[in-house]
Amino acid sequence: MRLTNWVYTLPLRVRSLVWRKRQDADLDEELRDHIDRQIEENLARGMSEEEARVAALRAFGNFVMVRERTHAAWAWVSLERLRQYLLYAFRSARRSPLLSAVAILALSLGIGLNAGVFTLLNAMFLRPPTLHEPASFVQLCPRYSGWFTGADQNSSFTTEDFDAIRSRSQTLDQVAAWQQSAALPEHGSTRVNTLEVTCNYFHVLGVDRPLMGRLFAAGDCNRNAAARVAVLSEPYWRSQFSADPQIVGQTIHLNGIPLSVVGIVPADSANFMMGGVILPYTLQTQLDHSRNLLASPDTPWLSIAGRLRAGYTRADAQAELLAILSQQDRAYVMRKISAFNRKTSLVLTNGSFIENPGNHDIVIGLMVLILGPLALILLLACTNVTMLFLSRTIVRSGEIAIRLALGVRRRQLAVMLLMDSLLTVCIGGVLSLILAHRVPVVIMNMADRGQSDFVVLLRPDWRVFGYLAILVIAATAISALMPIRAAWKLDLLTALKGREGAATVRSRTTTTLIVVQIGLSFVLMCAAVFFGRLPGLIKGIDPGFETHHTLAVPLDVNTSATNRAKAVAFYRALEAKILAIPGVESFAYASLQPFNQFPPSEMRLPGQTKGSGQPASVDHVSTSFFSTFGIRILRGRVFLPGDVTSPDASTESVVSQGFAERFWPGSDPIGKSLVTGDDRRLTVVGVVADTRSERYGAIDGPRLYTVRSPTDVGGNLYVRFRGNSKPLEKAIRDAVRVLDSTQVVAPETIWEGLESNAEQAMSLARIVLAMASIALLMAVIGVYGVLSFAVNQRSREFGIKMVLGADRCTIFRSVILRAAKSIAMGLLFGVALAEPAMLLFIHLLARSPLPVHSVDVTVFAVSAVLLTAVSLSAMYLPAARAMRTDPMRALRTE
Amino acid sequence: MSKPSDLVQGTLDLLVLKILALQPLHGWALSQRLKQVSGEVLQVSDGSLYPALHKLEQQGWIRSEWKPTENNRRAKFYSLTRLGKRNLEKEAANWERISTAISQVVRLTEV
Fold first, then answer.
1. Longest dimension (CA), chain B
2. By CA distance, what is B78's nearest residue in A?
3. By Cβ atoms counted within 10 A, which residue in A144, A219, A331, B62 is the most buried?
4. Are strands B25-26 and A716-721 parallel, antiparallel or unpaired?
């Protein structure tokens, strides 16, 4: 019934909205016709002409009112009014085109940056990977409990678990597994991200059509005879092989293994794809000699996803898979592979990063850290727009007062002002789409050197548009808030008289605006200063050991018992070859790598019970370690070749200065005893200087060195040399290849490693710097706008002051002083905002080597000085204008 | 004033529908007929007919059409739609019910 009603009336309503004028004319004609007919009737009854007309009009009633009431019956009156408001807003925007343009530009910048970055984050974190029927795609995220430490951990699956799920699950139609890894291509020295996948991986992901060649066939994943084939991602193929159309059938080398390229997977086939080269997972043992994950019964390494069989829900699958996994758990515990009393729980997700319980918190934190500053930029843009509307409202206060006096309700007035800002924001929003489209691409190019490894499909979806809508609505509301308040509080009497007594209220408003703008831009300034300093910090540190002349040689050797004899032969031969290279001074092994964090182990003094010791990091090093790294010896001696009688039997240890101070404060550590976590007794023979090898620029915690036997294999190899590093890197690379053609290594000095880290930090810093510059620009425009507005409003006050004898300097000083007070308050506000953000950031970076300390005073101080300087210069012009106030003219407006 | 009370407004709609159900009419003719049938009891000004007419049209109960009339004039004729016919029946039944109830109550107090 209601629906048929709508069907009838909708066209009528639309007509009455669109053809307003014709409708009006029609109505007029109709009403006049009625009156004319009544007059004729009256004449026919014998009235005089005048009498007939008067009588007809009297009988008809109030003509204007009838017309108005009929109008009201026509259409949606409120919609009609909205149209008027919008028209009004449009006209008032046209009256001050420059200001409106600035506001729209600021808004489109703010909204565009936000929406653009959100598009990127959405594609990377929020969307499931598959484009094809995402509802049936499930990823399995296991969580282990029962580890002897008592802590639960998010994990992946062992090969056995995968086999069990694949063979027993009824609810999942297809089950695929993969591992993310990296491998060295033939001649490059940077690794390429690889994805080792089961051969139905692409099918489960919903990718069935290769760009060229073929995807994997079931036979490629034979565990006994893994096919040496590879599929390249389209961007990797384009960037590394210049889109070679003859690529299919060619052979490429990864980690020294020849692989035949069978196909190219298109870039737009999945939301994200994490590898540049995709390989059958059965190749894992060949790509990584040191670990055979495929056959390992207790090493989790595979991520698993599948497709729900028609008719089953996620809950069904979860129940079934939990049952399968608890059987697996029982079998695992029965075999007593380790002390791990495994108990697996499971979460099924849609495959996006954010739904994975292991990533969830860090993704949320990252999004807050990235979108937070961007939201600040939008807020800054909003304050600029607020300023525009506020000045318009004040200029129009007379007109608004008249409206109010004529009976316009304040609520209607508020809606009117809201429309004003809605119009501006909407235009800005539409313009921002261009930016939103460009920004993700620019960021990808700026941030990521190896863009071809991690392919993200940037396609806006409902989340992006939803976010955009939220931004627009928020921006409208925020920028309309102050003007509405000003109009609401308008004092009718004074406004109608044309004199305004509300100067104090307004000065509070302008102060608030300046405080907010300074505060918001301070936060962004801090971020920029912080990131801008990072590259310098990374490169400028003195780690306490030689970085320019120490080469790290990453080796990948199978040292398991079955291959031990071969491994020993390889290492000894390599050592001899390296020592023979001209320029090489020494080599050493260490178990820890610089600028990586490793969990410390427990160290006790003799007599202390287990668990009451203190944490210390333990580095298992060869005798030449200290000379190779150039670490200073403070007391006693370091290891001598004679210390090692047999493996694991040596008791000598060397401690760092920090260690000595922690364990034996104030006394000589030489000759003291120590007990390790696994109950070995050690004697301290020497003390060496502290290093800064865990975090950039921060002194390491207590560190203990134990000596390894010269017959040991494995560990990280370092080479000390004289002269230029490049020829040496090549010589070592060649030496390794001659010994074992499957070993492809890329030696680099520790300094080169630092430089590439600094480069990464730099690319991040560039993005933050760009953001902060935009924020600063907006803040400058904003502060300038606010202050010019305030100065204009106070011109009468200045006039009076001048007449009373104030000189121009006094005026200038009073303006600047008041503004400086707002700046100070803004800085305080900024610190209050920046600190929690900083804490969150530190929390997120807890495991990275970046030197972040709780509250970095330098960052705050530098940002504050910069910001103060910039905003004071923005204030100079309005203050100077105040100084030039002509008292006569200012007072004449009275 | 000329604004009819809610009750009368409701009945005005009903009367208009009823009259238009017999034949399509233009505004003036409709007002004449209204006066005639209601015996001048309904004290509404001629003008207040038009908001009612336009509201009924917006509701889709009646439709309008410009048609030529005598000596080269034209007038807007209103006629009932199907939706209007259905509603007229309902409203009439409603009216029947209410007026009976009211008149019974009124009689009751008179006794």
1. 59
2. A30
3. B62
4. unpaired
**In this structure, are residues A138 and A349 in contact, taking their beta carbons and an 8 Å threshold?**
yes
Kind and range of the H or E element at A253?
strand A251-254
Q: Do B51 and A69 touch (CB under 8 A)?
A: yes
Contact B76 A66 (CB under 8 A): no
Please give the helix or strand (H or E) that residue A567 lies within, else none: helix A564-580
Whether B51 maps to a domain, the answer reads: yes
pTM exceeding 0.90: no
Domain assignment present for B1: no
Q: Is the pLDDT of residue B68 over 80?
A: yes
Tokens 């009737």 correspond to: A41
Phi, psi for residue A682 in degrees, rounded to 5: -125, 155
Place of tokens 């119009």: A423
Count structural domains, chain B: 1
Cα→Cα distances B94→A113, B4, B10, B101, Å: 62, 20, 11, 11
Closest Cα partner for A812 from A802, A804, A824?
A802
Residue in this structure with the two tokens 């590879």, named with its chain if needed: A230
ipTM for the whole predicted complex goes beyond 0.90 = no
Q: Which residues of A touch B77 (CB under 8 A)?
A: none
B51/A70 touch (CB, cutoff 8 Å), yes or no: yes
Phi and psi, residue B80, nearest 5° = -80, 140
pLDDT of residue B111: 52
Angle at A192 between CA A188 and CA A198, to 5 degrees: 135
Distances (CA, A) of A799 to A156, A227, A879, A880, A891: 76, 89, 14, 14, 6
Task: pLDDT band for B1, please (50, 70, 90 cuts).
Answer: very low
Give the domain CATH number at B31: 1.10.10.10
Query: Whole-angstrom Cα distance, residue A248 to residue A230?
Result: 10
Average pLDDT over all residues of chain B = 81
The domain spans of chain A are 2-75, 134-351, 362-540+756-892, 550-749
Tell me the residue type at A752. E
- What pLDDT score was predicted for residue B109? 64
Structural domain containing residue B99: 6-110
User: Do residues A106 and A388 touch, judged by C-beta distance below 8 A?
Assistant: no
User: Could you say which DSSP state residue A407 is in?
Assistant: T
What secondary structure, in 3-state letters, does chain B show?
CCCCCHHHHHHHHHHHHHHHHHCCEEHHHHHHHHHHHHCCCCCCCHHHHHHHHHHHHHHCCEEEEEEECCCCCEEEEEEECHHHHHHHHHHHHHHHHHHHHHHHHHHHHHC
Identity at A588, one-letter amino acid code: A
Q: Which amino acid is at A815?
A: V
Task: Provide the token pair at A401.
Answer: 């007062």
Looking at beta carbons, which residues of chain A come within 8 Å of B47? 31, 60-63, 65-66
Q: Which of A22, A30, A39, A54 to mutate to test the interface with B (most CBs of B within 10 A)?
A: A30
Of the CA atoms within 13 Å of residue A796, those in its CB half-sphere come to: 9
Instruction: Decide if B60 and A34 are in contact by the 8 Å CB cutoff.
Output: no
Q: Do B46 and A60 touch (CB under 8 A)?
A: yes
The answer to whether the Cβ–Cβ distance between A73 and B83 falls below 8 Å is no
pLDDT tens-digit profile of A831-857?
898 888 888 777 777 666 666 665 678
Exposed, middle or buried by CB within 10 Å (0-12, 13-18, 19+), for A199? buried
> Across the interface, which of A5, A62, A65 has its CB nearest the CB of B60?
A5
**Cβ distance A636 to A686 under 8 Å?**
yes
Residues A682, A662: Cα–Cα separation, whole Å: 17
Which of A563-567, A625-629, B8-12: highest mean pLDDT?
A625-629
**Helix pair angle (B49-59, B27-38), 10° resolution:** 110
Number of alpha carbons in the 13 Å side-chain half-sphere of residue A26: 19
